[in-house]
Amino acid sequence: MKTTIKMLVLVIALTGIITFGANAQNKAKVSLEIDPVTFAFSGYSAHVRIQPKSSEKVLLGAGIYAMNMPSAIVNFNENNKDLGWNVRLSQGYGLFGEYHFDKPNKKWFLGAQTSLQQYTIEKDNETGESKFNNALLMAYGGYAFQLFNSNLYAKPWAGVGYTAKLSGENTLGNSTYDIAPITMFATLHIGYTF
Fold first, then answer.
1. In the chain, what are the domain boundaries?
2. For the segment 27-53, what is each residue's pLDDT rounded down to a tens digit?
3. Rounded distance between C-alpha atoms, residue 75 and residue 82, angstroms
4. What percent of the chain has pLDDT over 70?
5. Half-sphere exposure of 178 (CA within 13 A, CB side)
6. 28-193 adopts what CATH topology?
7. What is the pTM of this model?
């Protein structure tokens, strides 16, 4: 009985391997990406992108990310400029869609992102912290290029988005951290397509 089960598992496995090889060109492709900028600012990121098998130019994906916001981004909002705010994007969850004018993860592309994000704010000369959650809807564009003639790629992009507070507090003591409705962001993703 054990031999029969082992043979059945072997046959199923071999069938799967052969079928996978035969259909490799007709299957969905998966890419994994990170954003090195988040790591540089004490954070992390992990993104998965899927090219549906019926699509030649579209990628769909999801990602998680976190980072300390650089003072340049915090100070970009004149209402927060040089007021001593320390801001951490504590956790972000995003859904992404991209249209590539050539092939996915090659050359020019446009995309859209919708995310839920939690921020933690602190302020110099104030005790404690506050947290708030917001929603983000962003349009972005960029250029992807292959590295070392392989499936590894770099994808710099920049975007403009709309954000709105959903819950929580953006005040600390007598100070209010201003949440601008329009936000901009630019970064670089590094990825690999399987």
1. 28-193
2. 899 999 999 999 999 999 999 999 999
3. 6
4. 87
5. 16
6. Porin (2.40.160)
7. 0.81
